[in-house]
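Amino acid chain
________________
===
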Amino acid sequence: MRLLTRYVLVQLLLTLFVSLFALTGLIVLAGVAREAITMGLGLIPTLRLIPYILPDALRYAVPGTVLLATTSVYGRMAGSNEIVAVKSLGISPMVLIWPLVVLSAFVSLATVWLNDVAVSWGRDGVNRVVLDSAEEIAYRVLKNQRYLSTPWLTISVEDVVDRRLIAPTIRVNYSDEYPPGAIMADEAEIRSDQKNGVLSMPLRNVTGDFGQGYGLRNYDEFTFQVPIHYLLKRGGRGGGPADKSLRDIPSEISRRTEALRDERETQATLAAFQMMSGDFDPLTDKVWQLNHQRRHDGQEMLYKLATEPHRRWANGFSCLFFALVGAPMAIRRRHGDYLASFFAVFLPILLVYYPLLVGGVIQAKNGVWPPECVWLGNLVFAIWAIWLMRRVIRY
């Protein structure tokens, strides 16, 4: 028995590592190329991105490679009648499948961890590399294209000479500090202030118009400051549930639950006081709508926080359920190519598993379904796996 277990485990590991290396390499290259092209990164910052993109690439590559390794190994064993030989000796095929169950369970746990690392350490690392290169990115884009456009602002120049921007025009679309408008200058520079997270642009001979009587007229010098993420087409540091590590989510749920309870108590107390005093002016429809929207947003955030751990665990353990379906499917299709077995499982994954997962996540985040419904796709594949296993063992 140990010989059979060791034989199957070695075959699975070899196939898994080879396919994982190849697929992860492709995903990493695609991810690095996308960031480099989108942000205009140089060679050194691009190379610095690789370790931060690797966890993200692995969490997408592992489920597919586990399924590919499973159908490849068990399809080859079934095609060479090794499964038939084992059954003829009175040995249950489960002896050959148990190594896969144990291996895929450990791989699933690793994938849950990769999901956690990718959205916390990985995304922060990518943002940090891009923000560290903000000054060089801005100069490179302006020198090559003569303009840099983001949802928040647009910078256009006539030319870039050394480190000087010639005749820059800054159009502000949205900012916490400046109303919409435009600033023109004869020259400018870009200086990155990593400590404060801003790009400072010292402007010379400045004029500007922001409407409503607010503008700049013939300033000799004026320093325009903008948050770095405004200029790099990236939002600020992620603070949503998808950007938090699993260990931080329980404390965040407790904090937001207490804040929501305090908000409800405060609003109830305020409403009671106003009704008793007869001061109904603050109880306008607009005020109530704003308060209701604030409480609704708080409750919606709690739904998202409660759903996120289930999403990551269910997504990680997809490796286990894909393998449990892939092995008996490959054994039953012993006369077919292992790729045919792979796609016989991969197609239901696309058409059934992921729609159930995404639909469950959406409904749970909206508070329509409980967070546990995220596991619905895994449950369907578990039932399918049991049905296939019974047929393999029986026949």
Remarks:
- The radius of gyration is 29 Å.
